Amino acid sequence: MSAFSELRRSALNAVLSVVVALLLAPSAHAQNDPLPSWNDTAPKAAILSFVEKVTKQGSPEFVPEPERIAVFDNDGTLWVEQPMYTQLAFALDRVKTLAPQHPEWKDVQPFKAALEGDIKTLAASGEKGLLEIILVTHTGMTTSEFEKVVTDWLSTARDPKFKRPYTELVYQPMVELLSYLRANGFKTIIVSGGGVEFVRPWAEKVYGVPPEQVIGSSIKTQFKMQDDTPTLYRLPEINFIDDKAGKPVGINQEIGRRPIAAFGNSDGDLEMLQWTTMAGAPARLGMLVHHTDTEREYAYDRDTEFGRLDKALDAAPIAGWTVIDMKADWKQIFKD
Amino acid sequence: MSAFSELRRSALNAVLSVVVALLLAPSAHAQNDPLPSWNDTAPKAAILSFVEKVTKQGSPEFVPEPERIAVFDNDGTLWVEQPMYTQLAFALDRVKTLAPQHPEWKDVQPFKAALEGDIKTLAASGEKGLLEIILVTHTGMTTSEFEKVVTDWLSTARDPKFKRPYTELVYQPMVELLSYLRANGFKTIIVSGGGVEFVRPWAEKVYGVPPEQVIGSSIKTQFKMQDDTPTLYRLPEINFIDDKAGKPVGINQEIGRRPIAAFGNSDGDLEMLQWTTMAGAPARLGMLVHHTDTEREYAYDRDTEFGRLDKALDAAPIAGWTVIDMKADWKQIFKD
Fold it and tell me: How far is CA A178 from CA B8, B127, B189, in A?
């Protein structure tokens, strides 16, 4: 090889190195801290180590991309659930909106309590009372009409404590986690006890989760042709409750694969975490968000009406689930 | 600009053209005939024209990738459904397998008919009789156990006419269509009247459709911890019938978006095609596979027990759905 061609080759190699470095730079940089709102404590380490293990080709714990399913509870895991589930706030506002068409509600429980904002009486009406309110406020219209009602409400409603739209009260560390998992070939699935059609209209914009990756509770719908237009009409009847032992059922029904990672925050997520992590396979990740931050959000666990964390908190150390201490482990709760 | 730099630029352009041509060549070639098992008749033209319209950036009918949902019936649309639905053949074989544990079946209908292969009496037992057979043969085990039973059966069972495994009796033109749509950014979803857990175990391998993109009829399951192992147990109770008006309901429940293309072959697909194509949007594709080929497969429509095509065939010209004439439009039915 001549000195000239040698020189030319070196020059070419140098150029190529720069090009390669430039091409790799943004991704290398992003890999430096894919979870900037997480403190460098145990939960962050557990996430990073798990993702490394299951994505590393040739590792004994490698999981092929199509099987990388991660499931997330919504209320209290991805967004705020106090002082009451957002969907309940929506339902109570709907009662007020619909009240003029129902003058009888002024004297009938649980509607009287809903109209008067009497949460104590409302809570005392129990599951039956709440169900009655949900059915009256969530049905009797087409699916498209309901989507519009939800979207309109979210655009104006404000959280009572933070005075911000509910869709801004999503946990920034969890939003980063969703992105990080997707960047590593995971499908991120929401498995909510809340209504699937209450979450779908905004999940894609806020979480990057498309409608087909949202599982939730649902009411029955009926196909109807209305003047040559096909519609799905929402009937006042529960179809499926996607909570507790219902969560693995919903996951199997709609996904048909067992997840390899599950994130929850309450006893409603216990069975989902069991289903995900206790299958005998090597690498599985179970995590619980523990609300410990009175100042920046709320602190609650065993004694709360919404998002009780009791049995699952006891199960965590035995099952090897990581408990996220919001106060200690999260640098930031919400996006500024 | 000097004559030399002009010349250099032309030379560079020439090189670039060759590089670009080489880079594009394989894809251009594939685009030449993405549907080689289809004859050059109207249905193929309709598919190609539809895909071009919805994928062409800037076209008034452009559809963003996440909204490119195509739904496919399974029995009779993607694979053979005569002389009876494959899942029914499976159920009848299961009755024979389970018979030793049920000596009483020898004298009780519809089991007696099933054991004797007396299809006429079996059919006469109606929906109630068939349901009884489905529940007995499809439940009373975990979801994992059922998956194994299905997989084992498919590996040995042979179709009575073609003497081939059922999973080889999938329509090659439709397999090409599934791939072609996916290559153009579509999600291809199976929406089967058959059991979702009967289709999922093989849909990925045979159709390239992952479990989470299979919707179907289902039976109820129950979450149970068995010696520290979480399982889903199949109960003898129907959960959902994904047929006729149930198909749009199932699509909305699991996908949450309205499809832009739908493929079926029977009256069971009528509402799915209506839901897909009659939404008032510009570009929608509805297609019906019409079984017209006695020689290479079967010919049937209005008068058949399995896959009756009657109302939907009448609706097609009015709704603008394309009818695929298997004999005339398909070069090949199965893979050799």
Answer: 50, 45, 24
* Residue A5: pLDDT band with limits 50, 70, 90: low
End-to-end Cα spacing for chain A: 61
**DSSP character for A63?**
-
Give the whole-angstrom CA distance, residue A241 versus residue B225.
Answer: 19
Residues of B in contact with A222 (CB under 8 A): 245, 249
Pairwise CB contact (< 8 Å): A229 & B66: no
Tell me: the pLDDT tens digits for A144-193? Answer: 999 999 999 999 999 999 999 999 999 999 999 999 999 999 999 999 99
Sign of dihedral through CA atoms B162, B168, B169, B173?
A: negative
B133 within 8 A of B111, measured Cβ to Cβ? yes
**Given an 8 Å threshold on Cβ–Cβ distance, is A275 in contact with B230?**
yes
Backbone angles phi, psi at B160, to 5 degrees: -65, -30
Alpha carbon separation from B173 to A109, A322, B4, B159, B334 (Å, rounded): 60, 49, 55, 20, 8
Dihedral sign of CA atoms B124, B126, B129, B133 in order = positive
Q: How confident is the model over B55-93, as pLDDT tens digits? A: 999 999 999 999 999 999 999 999 999 999 999 999 999
Interface predicted TM-score of the whole assembly (ipTM), two decimals: 0.89
Say whether pLDDT at A291 is over 90: yes
Q: What is the phi-psi region of residue A219: left when phi exceeds 0, alpha when psi lies from -120 to 50, beta otherwise?
A: beta
pLDDT number for residue A127: 85
Residues in chain A closer than 8 A to B204 (CB atoms) = 66
Residues of B in contact with A232 (CB under 8 A): 248-249, 252, 275
pLDDT at residue B5, rounded to an integer: 58
Contacts of A278 in chain B (CB under 8 A): 228-230
Encoded tokens for B140: 């009373």
Query: Is CATH 3.40.50.1000 the right assignment for the domain spanning B38-88+126-329?
Result: yes
Q: Does B197 touch chain A (CB under 8 A)?
A: yes
Portion of chain B with pLDDT greater than 90, in percent: 83
Joined tokens for residue A128: 């039956």
Q: Which residue has the tokens 């200690």?
A: A328
Percent of chain B whose pLDDT exceeds 70: 91
Other Cβ atoms less than 10 A from the Cβ of A295: the count is 8
Which pTM value belongs to this model? 0.90
Cite the beta strand spans of chain A per DSSP E. 69-72, 187-195, 214-226, 229-240, 261-264, 285-292, 299-300, 322-325
- Stretch B11-16: mean pLDDT, rounded? 56
Model confidence band, residue B28 (pLDDT cutoffs 50, 70, 90): very low
- Residue ranges per domain, chain A? 38-88+126-329
The H or E element spanning position B247 is helix B246-254
Q: Does B274 touch chain A (CB under 8 A)?
A: yes
Disruptive mutation site among A214, A252, A274 for chain B (greatest number of B CBs within 10 Å): A252
pLDDT the model gives residue B266 = 98
